[in-house]
Amino acid sequence: MRVDIGNALASEADPGIDRDALDDLDERVADAHDRIARGTADDEFGYASLNLPERTDAAEIEDAVAGFDPEAILTVGIGGSALGAITITEALAGDSPVDHYALDNVDPAHVNRLLDDLPLDETAVHVVSRSGTTAETLANFLVVREAMESAGVDWAERTVVTTGESGPLRDLAEAEDLPALDVPEGVPGRFSALSTVGLVPAAMMDVDLDALLAGGRAGADALTGSLYDCPAYAYGAVAYALDQRGASVNAMMPYAEGLESFAEWFAQLWAESLGKDGGGQTPARALGATDQHSQLQLYRAGPRDKLVTVVRPRERPDSPIPETDVADLEYLGGQDLGTLLDAEFEATEASLAAAERPSVRVEIDRMDAESVGRLLFDVEAACILAGELYGVETFTQPAVEWGKKAARGLLGGGDFEEADAVREKTELVVE
Ligand SMILES: O=P(O)(O)OC[C@H]1O[C@H](O)[C@H](O)[C@@H](O)[C@@H]1O
Q1: Fewer CB within 10 A of the end CB, N or C, for the chain?
Q2: Cβ of 20: how many Cβ atoms within 10 Å?
Q3: pLDDT of 264-294, one tens digit each?
Q4: Where is the signal peptide (predicted)?
């Protein structure tokens, strides 16, 4: 991964970081790196995520799915138990004959439609929950199971589970004798893309898991104690420093359709990890060039509270634009769609810089397994580094847990005081 922070310097942008401040920050990065390296070596909760590229056993995952030859894969999970898998297959399995769908919400209209459309007798189901208790995931799984049964499909033959050591999903897998993979120890869901959690559908779609993990390992090898030598830390440190200077929003804007879900994955990673103690940088999702024609107006001319992160692969497949003799379109003829997209990318950066708005450029070599593995690893490392600089507990999400308990209490799944707060809602209704 390559990161260019030039357009985040105070000489170019407001808010921006001056060179002296960057040097001071680099000393804090060195300390944070020591902490991260210690946590990683000791397999501490959360830091253990950075060991995944080294530890994840691609062959074990490939063996577990070897008996499946589906037309479609249905991931049943939510948050960190779905977004990594979706991101990876969207980025890397575009040409696969197998389609990957996800049920990461419990909107009945969507669930019913999807189950009506799926070839259930040719669908493999991957049910993922680290805790094994998440209501949305478990409820969706029960609905899927029932739909398969009603269609005369042996759901147990078509299901693989990934979950923690114990919990209701583990119990269910054991009771039904389902193949069950383990969520790695010490790895929060949002940091688990490069594990069984994120890789099962990719394996069924013939993504090169070894290359993906090799990309992650290259990221791990590149972690050093200076932001000037380490792209992951450069990104994490600069995003943090800009937030401290007023850029409280980080608009993640990949210029590649295959990375649209990456922005969604990033949003969970950044928000759940860093949104603590009254601070944190709000992730926004955008897609270049599409959102250049909508959100960019705000990014360039709205409040000075944003960092725009533009991401692109440095190589793209060819797609020539045919010549035309329409006078005003002649400049397009003979060009390539990729050249146009890159021109849009550079135009966005320049347009932000001309208005003194900070942006950071993140580039990967191309949309292949190794580069995407590197991107995911590096952004996780950036997030962990930022967590150290903020001084927050990066690996917990107590605010999310609150809502989970409230919803569960409302459905009669236990006596939770959080559910009382829902019942006590203040109303001021206008109809
Ligand atoms: O994997 P699960 O235990 O089902 O959790 C799925 C998701 O649930 C929660 O909402 C957490 O805040 C997320 O971090 C997690 O990824």
Answers
A1: C
A2: 9
A3: 999 999 999 999 999 999 999 999 999 999 9
A4: none
pLDDT in tens, 193-235: 999 999 999 999 999 999 999 999 999 999 999 999 999 999 9
Helix (H, G, I), strand (E, B) or coil at 391: coil
Crossing angle of helices 369-390 and 83-92, rounded to 10° = 140
Contact 276, 390 (CB under 8 A): yes
- Output the CA angle 123-129-131, nearest 5 degrees: 160
ipTM: 0.97
Give, for ligand 1, the residue of 397, 408, 418 to mutate: max count of ligand atoms closer than 8 Å to Cβ: 397
**Furthest C-alpha separation in the chain:** 72
d(CA 183, CA 45): 13
Beta strands in 267-412 (DSSP E): 282-285, 306-313, 359-364
Our mutation pick for probing the ligand 1 site, out of 131, 133, 169, counting the most ligand atoms within 8 A of Cβ, is 131
Which pair of structure tokens corresponds to residue 54? 């080294």
* Whole-model pTM over 0.90: yes
- Are 139 and 133 within 8 A, CB to CB? no
Catalytic residue among 146, 185, 293, 323: 293
Question: Other CB atoms closer than 10 Å to residue 317's CB: what's the count?
Answer: 10
